[in-house]
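Support request, please re-run this one:
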Amino acid sequence: MSKIIKLKVNGMHCNGCANKIKTTLEQLNADQKVEVNISTGEVKVEFNNKKASLSDIKAGIISSGFSVESFEIE
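Re-run finished. Output below.
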């Protein structure tokens, strides 16, 4: 089953930041699609919630050196 979540992430400044987050989340192996928008500070993730959870996604972003300000499940 697929879920979509949008997260407001603090600390992203460049494409390197976006790539770091995207690479980390892709390593969760949750059949996900990751979109990072540096200008809005948003990360949108469509993922298989049987393979990963919201906590896994937030932890991945935090382990990449960023903080999650808020999130919204679509």
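The helical segments are 15-26, 54-63. The CA atoms of residues 21 and 64 lie 6 Å apart.
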